[in-house]
Amino acid sequence: MEPATQAVPGYFVWQAPGQPVAIHLSIEVVDRLSADIMRGFGLVPKRGAEVGGVLIGTIESDTIRIEDFEAIPCTYARGPSYLLTDAERALFNEVCQRRSAEIVGYYRSHTREGLALQPEDIQLLGQFLPSAARVALLVKPFATKPGVAGFFVRENGAFPAATPLEFPFRRWEMTGEEPPRRAPMQERKRKERQPEKRDEVAAPPPSNEDKVAAAPESSGAPRPYYRIFSAEPEEEPKHTPQAPRATKSRTGMWMVASFVFLLLGVLLGYEASRITAPQRGLSDFALLFAVERTGDNLTVRWNPDSRAVRLASSGELEIDDGSETKHVNLDRANLSNGSMVYRNMSNKVRFRLVINLDAGLSVTQALEWAP
């Protein structure tokens, strides 16, 4: 029996034979969750890292509606499986308490053999999501074909050993529709940063004479900083009305000179403060980016308390491993985790961490690992 999808536009309706429960899964959630699962799948060669979290929605009688999800990070201290440490279990519990009225279930990507809940899944669900109405979703990703998924619904208080109904976990196979087209990530970043890069050129204080002189000549650069630092000191000597000043009294000349020196002192002080002030805060943005060998894997670490990480909107980890290059997108939860486990294929791996801030700015650090 195939699940019915035509009755609810925008949703995939899962209902196994003989079960009264119908699960309405938002197709938009499928798109976003698939992207998150594939990012984890690409972290570790051959098998891939698992990701997990909670499903958000509503429960009404025999209908469960899934509208969103919240990922709960894992440091992979025991390998690429989604096995939470005590600290991560505490975070899982905090999320369950905070969103108890919204949570309808648990999800996990499954890169192990088969497609079945593991003892640690059952224990996690029993401890933090004990309600009989809450369900579990497993998604098995593949590199060259759509993933396969299945829901698990409690029967007499216990989860079945296998899902009663598997289904393809991709929009096209579920609905016959293509996902909304998005520009490539590099193109989106380039478009976002281009106008801000122009701001970066204009924003630094004109600390040398060339920059000060160039501002009045450029008719298309109405930047306020250039006007403040260039118009008044530079235009005054060029004005031809200076000739009549020679006829004024010596007292008037001294008053004008005093005013000019006062203005120059204020401007120089302001410029000095702009040059020195950021230097005092540079240490706050230190990423402390490092890589170390842990067993058969490499653990990539950064400082989650760095001001750059706390202010980040997103990030990216670029990995050059032998002849392969990988791009791992990092959301705020991943960044606050402060580490990631990677299984290397070669003895020379180059990592580049990019922290994206608001207004198109970014903090970047790169390093190379070799045994």
Can you tell me about this structure?
The protein has 371 residues and is an alpha+beta fold. The protein has three domains: 11-175, Cytidine Deaminase, domain 2; 187-280, no CATH class; 283-369, Immunoglobulin-like, CATH 2.60.40.10. It is 35% helix and 26% strand. The protein has an eight-stranded mixed beta sheet, sandwiched between helices. It has a four-stranded antiparallel beta sheet with strand order 12-11-14-15. A hairpin with a 2-residue loop joins strand 3 (52-60) and strand 4. Helix 6 (209-217) packs across helix 7 (224-238). It is globular. The two termini are 54 Å apart.
Number of helices: 11
Helix percent reads 25-40%
Rg calculated over all Cα atoms: 29 Å
Give, in order, the helices and strands: EEHEEHEHEEEHHHHHHEEHEEHEEE
Span between termini: 54 Å
CATH architecture of the largest domain, by name, is 3-Layer(aba) Sandwich
For the sheet with most strands, the description reads: 8 strands, mixed
Q: Which ranges are low-confidence, i.e. pLDDT below 50, for 5 or more consecutive residues? A: 1-6, 196-203, 208-237, 272-282
Average the pLDDT over all residues and give the rounded result.
78
Percentage of residues in strands: 25-35%
The structure class reads alpha+beta
Name the features.
four-stranded antiparallel beta sheet; Cytidine Deaminase, domain 2; 26% strand; alpha+beta; eight-stranded mixed beta sheet; 35% helix; globular; Immunoglobulin-like; single chain; 371 residues
